[in-house]
Amino acid sequence: MKFDLTDKPALQQLPWSDLKSYLDAQGWHLVDRIGDKALVYVPDPVATDPVEILVPARDDLGDYAARMAEAIQILADREERSALAVYQDLTTSGLDVVRLRAPKADASGAIAIEDGVVLYREAENLMLSAACSVVDSRRTYHLRKVTEATDYLKTVRFGPSERGSYVLTILSPVQPRLTHQRPIDFDEEPFPRTVMLRLASALGAAKRAADQARADNAFEPFDAAVSQGVSANLCEALARLAETTQGFDIGLTWARTRPAGRARQTFHFTPEVGEVLREAARIFRQSEPMTDTRVTGFVIALDRPVEQFDGHATLRVLIDEKPRRVRARFEQAVYAQVIQAFQDKAAISLLGDLFPIGRRWEIRNPRALQVLEDQDGDEIAGAPTLEYSA
Predict the structure, then answer these.
(1) Based on the domain organization, do 78 and 176 belong to the same domain?
(2) What percent of the chain has pLDDT over 70?
(3) Is 119 in a helix, a strand, or coil?
(4) Residue 333 domain-assigned?
(5) Which of 55, 100, 157, 284: disulfide with 232, CB 3.0–4.6 Å?
(6) Mean pLDDT, to the nearest integer, of 211-219?
(7) At residue 144, does pLDDT exceed 70?
(8) Is residue 81 one of the residues assigned to a domain?
(9) Residue 139 and residue 77 in one domain
(10) What is the DSSP letter of 65?
(11) In what order do the strands lie in the sheet with 38-42?
(12) What integer best gives the mean pLDDT of the chain?
């Protein structure tokens, strides 16, 4: 990125509130106001240092760009940094920033295009899974179906890549805090900040769960971390990133216009941790309900004799092309069809919501029941054996 202090359009677009927030965060002091036009900041109100920065308080001032350039130059000189570095910091004052560092870059900071595609895709999935978790903490998501999360993602931007291997930046705008109020509860934060806080908690929880799962050879640490934002989607994204980059760092910094009350956070994921996360995602997926699913099979058992039938039955159906025993409870309106299919060993087809219960499955809300004619039982779900459950 190129920038110099004569770039008037870039300076004109830089919000003066971001400069003010930067000075507040760096310990500068507001000592005076010039009407409604400018705020006067100094590094130390009791020192004899003559340095001061005039922060334009309106963006329609004729010398707005000149004042912003002057402020950037003063900060660059005092901090012994380039004007570009200061400018980049100012542009993120109102943003929560995620930095994903991939160490596989070459000497020029470039990476293979296929690796870049994975980085950008999985970075999006990380943000979306965190947003979904804020709406509803679950083990797995159909990401694009959570409207509030997808609406939030429309506000997020990929920033310019940074040097230092290859650093992908994700910029999440957040509303400024207008008063120096007490730290507020998680639920009182605006949605964009809540997403970033949930992402931070999810990254930490996923790393701890992976370490504990490896030590104990158990999945339970991941189950316990669902409330902190860990899901199949998050684990898959982290696993793919770790595999592609051969280990990566991900850091979060907080908008200076809305202090988060915490320091910058960084997490490191190795390929070995990625393997554990991939397995956790697989187990999460296995327990995902399958809604609005059509299945075919046979009624192989009624819980009660025909004359006392109350709708509870066991079916043998195909799930993922494998025959499985499944429990179901039918509505009274289809009792006769269920009983007839059971007695005739006839194949049936229905829509239902499949839920894993331990090692077994349960069909909830079975509907659109059809009795199929002339079906080969071996081809559908194995030849049925009539039985009554005890």
Answers:
(1) no
(2) 90
(3) helix
(4) yes
(5) 284
(6) 93
(7) no
(8) yes
(9) no
(10) H
(11) 29-34, 38-42, 53-56
(12) 87
The answer as to whether 300 is a domain residue is yes
State the sign of the Cα–Cα–Cα–Cα dihedral 149, 124, 218, 210. Answer: negative
Spatial contact of 149 and 143, defined as CB atoms under 8 Å apart = yes
Q: Which of 286, 306, 339 is the last residue of a domain?
A: 286
The pTM (predicted TM-score) of the whole model is 0.66
Looking at residue 143, its pLDDT comes to: 62
Residue 2 vs residues 5, 72, 87, 277, 306: alpha-carbon distances, Å: 11, 15, 11, 40, 81
Q: Are residues 131 and 186 in the same domain?
A: yes
- Left (φ > 0), alpha (ψ -120 to 50) or beta: where does 229 sit? left
Q: pLDDT tens digits, residue range 100-132? A: 988 777 777 788 899 999 999 999 999 999 999
Which of 126, 122, 130, 129 has the alpha carbon at shortest distance from 197? Answer: 130
Residue 6, CB-side half-sphere exposure with 13 Å CA sphere: 0
User: 253, 271, 286: which is the final residue of a domain?
Assistant: 286
| Same structural domain, 236 and 138 | yes
Do 120 and 250 share a structural domain? yes
The alpha helices in 64-186, defined as continuous H runs, are 64-79, 83-91, 113-135, 147-153
Q: In which element (H, E) is residue 388 found? A: strand 387-388
**Residue 319, domain CATH:** 2.40.50
Q: How many domains does the chain have?
A: 3
> Can you state the percent helix, strand and coil of the chain, rounding each to 5?
40, 25, 30
Band of residue 207 on the pLDDT scale cut at 50, 70, 90:
very high
Q: Residue 320, SS3?
A: coil
DSSP run (H or E) holding 41: strand 38-42
pLDDT tens-digit series, residues 323-335: 889 999 999 999 9
Give yes or no for a contact between 209 and 226, defined as CB atoms under 8 angstroms apart: no
pLDDT of residue 286: 78
Domain membership of residue 358 (yes or no) is yes
The whole-number pLDDT of residue 3 equals 55
Backbone angles phi, psi at 16, to 5 degrees: -65, -25
Residues 112 and 250 in one domain: yes
* 295 in the same domain as 223: no
Residue 115: which domain range?
Answer: 95-286
Residue 171, pLDDT above cutoff 60: yes
